[in-house]
Amino acid sequence: GPLFAALLGVLFCLILALRSDGRAAWRWWSATGACAGLALCSKYSAVLTLIGVAAFLATEPRSRRWLRQPQPYIAGAAALMVFLPVLIWNVEHGWISFLFQGTRASGPLRPLGPLSAIAGQAAFLLPWVWAPLVWCGLLAAYRGPSDRDRWLLVCLAAPPILVFTVAALWGNPLFHWAAPGYLMLVPLLGEAIARRRQTNRLVRIWLGATAAFIILGVVFVAGEIRFNWLSGLNEELALGRNPNLDVVDWTSLRAEFEKRGFLDRPGLVVATLKWHEAGKIDYALGGRIPVICLGPDPRQYGLTTNPDDYAGVDVLIVAPRRSLAQIEGQFGAWFDTIEPIAPATVMHAGRPATELPLFIGHRLHSYGRSQE
After folding, report:
1. Strand pairing partners for 359?
2. Residues 352, 343: Cα–Cα separation, whole Å
């Protein structure tokens, strides 16, 4: 995605900057900073890779001279300028996104957390790819700064991998958070494969088998998402049990809601309990009626919508896997009454994928009144 593209831009421009002088050095260092700013805009954790750049400049003898030159600091200024709109927005909104991201890896002590994180990272990358990646990284780390190019990749790879593995001691970092670090180890593995491919039959078998596994896996998953053939083969996967439900959109709801008159009902608002479900139904309805999120973690809907703006209106609550008792227990004080109605059916490739329980909340109260 954008993060990987920007980080690869940082790596590419940095390599050329380290090999340049004069005007070319100014250009490539500035480009490095611009790519770094784009990486930070994509994900704040990109700062870990940028710390790796500083570590490389401080530890590699031939590159240390750049710390006495203005170009790296111009790169830092360029990164800050690109990232500045994010900082301004956070200043205006109480640093909300920094606070949110800063608390995602916090929690009680988990002594086995790092082992779980390593296992998850290996599964995420495929174990037989993860192991040689790590081995190539360890070999490059053992050689140290004496091998300049490999040391650069190690310095950029180490911070994300180490930080998110150690963070698993007290939190639950997602396995893909460390992926930018492993990205920097890919050239090391690629170079090792290129050296051995012609002379080592096992390397060729490994390479071919991995490529075949990935291609077949992508075809299998993409085919299932597009055609939903597993539900046709196995009735147990039908109606809410298919493992691909998270990637199925809810666009079929638009026709059903229109048929049931929801889209033409004056003042009606749609609500969900989770931010990603709000996004799905918002996309499905194409902006025909407002969508709000009533759950405790509305994410972007907490910034773009305010339930108090719709006080006094009826709300169509879309609540997957929730009963009337659960909805009344959680949101009963928010409405005069809550009424269950017939569920909606999400269609996937012509087959029913899941049923969504629907409720009508009559006369939404203001937030302050609902807390009384």
Report:
1. 317, 340
2. 12
